Structure prediction request, 255 residues.
Amino acid sequence: MEYTILRPSLEGSTAFITISRPQALNALNSRFFEEMDHYISGIVADDSIRALIITGEGKAFVAGADIAEMVNMSPDEARDFSKRGQAVFNRLGQLPFPVIAAINGFALGGGMELAMACDFRIASSNAKFGQPEVNLGLIPGYAGTQRLPRLTNLADALYLLTTAEVIDAPTALQMRLIQKVTAPENLLDEARRLAGLIAAKGPLAVKMVKEVTRKGFEMSYTEGERLECDHFGDPFGNEGAEGMRAFLEKRKPEW
Ligand code: CO8
Prediction:
């Protein structure tokens, strides 16, 4: 597939996607979801990739779903658009390596929902966040109503969802919506540094810790604890044995 919106690249074991439709502030349209779905299908089984970084070109990360595409949708078409977007964002979050949102500017509506579908988020100090759907008489459709209260808390989520207030990066950090704020010029290097930290760890352990944490988060505490225990033994005898031996022998592990 020829990408017209995504600009994928690879630096060693770190994959990058730059969303590049700056003339519309990278607004998410059907074509974006087709390309993203195709891209995910291509990298999901690639064992050489240890992290994916998603960023936007220009002054926006993503300024929302494409209002021009949505304006004439029927209720059924809108529901389909929502369902399709949710499915693609779920696939993104389920990739077997960490997905880092590097938020370079506006992350509004569907853009904030995309960022929330990633595993964690770093942002440049000039990034802006918000769920402005109610300004348009809409509600979020890419799981913003569900991920936001889980990432922050019910009151902060309802505050943002009902007032549509646009918040700055320090406020988003305070709400724990994002994990780190950097100077704009350092954003991608910081994302690269984090991807590098991850790439130095046990590959199977990173994959497993993501899967267990994400799956367990959807379960009761007791079920999640059981899931962790079920998987705890898996690295013994292979990657975990090497990691522990390397520690005792005061050397770097060879994964
Ligand atoms: N969709 C389509 N086009 C957009 C969008 C968008 N979300 N955001 C910006 N653009 C376009 C503008 O129309 C403009 O195009 P043109 O040059 O042709 O007029 C271009 O991008 C540049 O934008 P501005 O001139 O407005 O730039 P400013 O710097 O003045 O303002 C803002 C930047 C504040 C970000 C402003 O563009 C804005 O408010 N954008 C809309 C933000 C918004 O409301 N986002 C939420 C959209 S709804 C949504 O995301 C719902 C998600 C769930 C969908 C579920 C499926 C049904």
In short: The radius of gyration is 19 Å. The chain has a mean pLDDT of 97.
